[in-house]
Amino acid sequence: MKQMKKWMALALAVAMVVSMALTGCGGNDEGGETIKIGVNYELSGAVATYGQSSVDGIQLAIDEINAAGGVGGKQIELVQMDNKSDAAEVVSVATRLMTEEGVVAVIGPATSGNFKAELPIAEENKIPVLSGSATANDVTVDYKDGEIVAGTTKEYAFRICFSDSYQGVGMANYAFKKLGAQKVAVIQDKSSDYAEGLAASFIETFQSLGGTIVAQEAYTTGDTDFNAILTSLAGKDFDAIWLPGYYQEVGLIIKQARALGIDVPVLGADGFDSPVLAELAGENALHDVYYSNHYSSLNEDETVTAFIEAFKEKYGKEPDAFNALGYDAAKLVCDAIERAGEATPEAIQQALASTADFKAVTGTLSIDENHNAQKALVVIRIEGGVAVSAENAEV
To answer: What is the 3-state secondary structure (H, E, C) of 307-327?
Structure first.
């Protein structure tokens, strides 16, 4: 009798382990009805517009995929959580998604710092994570002295945007060769890895072309009064301003610069891309502004126009670049699951790493050996608070 009880106890324990394993798969095992994909984005907090826009794009993509029959005959289920634009919350959300919710991949966060906070959790749990907009040089690899450290590619980290150095190089070329700028003043966010990377690559490239950096001024995330910085620049001679940073401070800097009579072209990167930029700067101040981005609604490619039409139908407004990047991120993850032939993290990771010539809204892209996207850089010009032109830039 005692022996029988032991066997029954053992059988019960095994059954519990199997049950827990199946629960952990979140319906992604062979018999499951859905495939779970985690969404870890900034839906509130300092950079909420990036997260909200990205998730709108993700949702549109998943709606289309599910309406067309899903992936491998299974519907895609999004497990969406708000990281509140906070790195500690990013870690908490990532841990829950990967250890409790049973997702096979995670999309997001949007910003580089938040995405990097998620990476140790992804590596530990061997779950691929992909960002549409984390542009820092060291997101997918280690970076030292302006160079990629060989052999440091983060196995489970991917992105479909280009890096900060890529943007900085492209915008330096654009400033010098397209706008004819010879002398540039730099204003950067010293508290942001994003801005630091952009500033360094721009300065190095611009100087190598024969340009001169006449001044470098700094601010910190959350600052609102930039008159001291701008007043110090007002007496200097320069042809343009390189302003790497996020829209919250950038909008105020442009507004205050124009008020002081600083009327030279202002150049930046994808951190400019937010509808709030025009609200902060004012339409009149937003002229002669150029920024690099991954996408423009002015593009007449049929992939872009179809996306714009679908987005407008669902949300009743024009999509921005973060909408497009979120859409592409979701489409690529689902494409990787389809190519992998199974909804397991390991197979999805391998499929993402082998992506080639994927036709996306933000450009046809391939994933290189460092898990970075290779695609074209777009420069958008703003006049009167609205985008009036877009063109590819030399990198």
So the answer is: HHHHHHHHHCCCCCHHHHHHH
Cα separation, 72 vs 32, whole angstroms? 12
98-103 own/partner pairs: CB under 8 Å, 24+ apart: 98/38, 98/122, 98/125, 98/127, 99/24, 99/125, 100/24, 101/26, 101/36, 101/38, 102/23, 102/24, 102/25, 102/26, 102/27, 102/28, 102/36, 103/26, 103/28, 103/36, 103/37, 103/38, 103/79, 103/127
**94: its two tokens:** 């990532």
Q: What pLDDT is stored for residue 31 in this prediction?
A: 52
Q: How many CB atoms lie within 10 A of CB 42?
A: 26
Residues 179-218: pLDDT tens digits? 999 999 999 999 988 898 899 999 999 999 999 999 999 9
Q: Where are the beta strands (DSSP E) in 249-352?
A: 266-268, 289-293
* Separation of alpha carbons 296 and 319, rounded Å: 9
Structural domains of the chain sorted by starting position, each given as residue range(s) with its CATH number in brackets: 34-162+300-364 (3.40.50.2300), 165-293+378-392 (3.40.50.2300)
Q: What is the pTM of this model?
A: 0.78
Residues 6+ apart with CB under 8 A from 113: 87, 136, 192, 193, 194
Query: How far is 69 from 274, CA to CA, in rounded Å?
Result: 33
Q: Say how far apart CA 209 and CA 190 lie, in whole Å.
A: 25
Backbone torsion region of residue 131, taken as left when φ is above 0, otherwise alpha when ψ lies between -120 and 50, otherwise beta: beta
Whether 19 has a pLDDT exceeding 70, the answer reads no
Tokens found for residue 12: 């019960």
Query: Which residues 6+ apart lie within 8 Å of 318 measured at CB?
Result: 297, 308, 311, 312
Q: What is the DSSP string of 116-171?
A: HHHHHHHHHHT--EEESS---TTSSS-EETTEEPTT---TTEEESSPPHHHHHHHH
* 247 three-state secondary structure: helix
The angle formed by the CA atoms of residues 353, 73 and 307, to the nearest 5 degrees, is: 65
Pairwise CA distance, residues 318 & 293, whole Å: 16
Cα 177 to Cα 180: distance, rounded to the nearest angstrom: 5
